[in-house]
């Protein structure tokens, strides 16, 4: 019963529609009516700029960290549970938060793709792997300015780290790693199509670097 209650709370935390509330409070618009129509960090970068995109991304990641860390409220998972019981419960909490982000009860069940919240979940469960994935995300973002491509490659890297490099033995955790990669790829199908066609929008960061490159070419 207590586990089920925490799962519900994790969903409610994940449901906090950061991008929607920011766009309405500071710009008087609903972010879902602009750009890609998603209430996530990527669309916030695209529509509201890098400052607010970064803010939304950080808050959405913290949602995943906070929801996944709810296990500390139950003494059993802090003292008596073995590592895998604790990890499995954390995965359940994190997935509830991701589900809340995608289908937020506070925003008519129209949310984002859950990538930032998913990374927050991974940060709470496996900090080293999460930091490596964030490093890959930032590197790809720096080189390309495509948040979608950065998210896709970082999620695939997560599966590679878990399955190959760290060779985690727990079957459920391995399945989770594969599911993460598949989920991110599936939720970015339209972005993949636009990337292949050259129509994907770049986020408004590092514009001065690109302008310098253009001037040098001229």
Blueprint of the fold:
Elements: H1 2-14, H2 18-27, H3 41-48, H4 50-68, H5 75-80, H6 83-102, H7 115-125, H8 127-144, H9 147-165, H10 171-187, H11 189-197, H12 207-217
Q: Top keywords for this entry?
A:
single chain; mainly alpha; 0% strand; 218 residues
Describe this structure in words.
It is globular and about 50 Å long. With 218 residues, it is mainly alpha-helical. Helix 4 crosses helix 7. The chain has one domain. The longest helix has 20 residues. The protein is built from twelve helices and no strands.
N-to-C order of helices and strands:
HHHHHHHHHHHH
Helix content: over 70%
**Biggest β-sheet strands, sense, barrel:** none
Into how many domains do the coordinates divide? 1
The helix/strand class is: mainly alpha
**Strand content range:** under 5%
Between the first and last Cα atoms, what is the distance in angstroms? 67 Å
Shape: globular
Mean pLDDT: 88
Query: Count of DSSP E strands?
Result: 0
Question: In brief, what are we looking at here?
Answer:
With 218 residues, the chain is mainly alpha-helical.
